[in-house]
Amino acid sequence: MDVGAPLGAKSVHRIAAAAAALVLAVSVAACSGGGGTTKAKRPAATTSTVDDAKQYLALASPANQEAERFNDAAAGALTGTVSQAQLADEAAKFAGVLTSMNRQLAADQWPPKLAPIVQDLQRANAKVIADLQRAATLAPTDLAAWNHEVAQDEGRFTEVATRIRLELRLPPAEA
Prior knowledge:
Strand content: under 5%
Shape: elongated
Distance between the termini: 32 Å
Helix content: over 70%
Radius of gyration: 18 Å
Largest sheet: none
């Protein structure tokens, strides 16, 4: 392959799909209930912290499952194995789960130190929801750029989810 030669459209889409899949996989892992392999001692968690952690993980789990399905569809759409209609369907399902998560986050009581971070997560989720709601109306030529935007917005989601996990004394998420 000539390093200086321009990439074809399929190569650009494959590169974009691989990059987006990596970012999206990290996003899902940051919110997941899985633990890391580190053995570092953590301060003892209070009953309140344990309850808050269980509450957060119960809200995050359905979103993680739907994110995985969406991520698979997004990667497939970029490689041509998933139609835009299928992608839009998965995007709508994921947006619905994130919307439900946001409602539950808003309805629940969070400790004062955690409440502003939860609000940050709601805002990050809202950006991803807005991205997902555009899936059905995308022109095929805009798919790679849209997927990149979703991945960037999910990167913000990952950052906030990681802060929540740290505050709740949850182990690091597995990537």
